[in-house]
Amino acid sequence: MKNLKLLLLTLFLPVIIFAQKSDNIKVAVKHKGKKTEIKEDNLPHFIQFGIMSKNHEDFKKKYKTDVVYQNCVVSSEISKRAKENNLVVAKNLTKKYGNAWKKDLGIVPYGL
Q1: Which of 6, 17, 34, 41 has its CA 20 to 30 A from that of 53?
Q2: Taking Cα atoms as reference points, which of 24, 22, 20 lies closest to residue 88?
């Protein structure tokens, strides 16, 4: 019985470890030019968790940045990715608009 458990553990452990691999976060920011428009699918976005508490359409139009709400259940990996993403988006907005965007957003993005 012990040998069977050891054998099963040996077979399934690499599968479990492989399934937990994660990719690096990449935030694509496109600038509006003479002939290019930012597609809504490619908008940079803040990641929030829980129930949507505010409509962010005005912010989205003004800053070309969306707010995406996800599930209430947050794993440590999802939390880490959201924090990294939100820090990058916040840095880009601050660089471009100063701190004005923070007041217009009306919430504190997750991880900031």
Answers
A1: 41
A2: 24
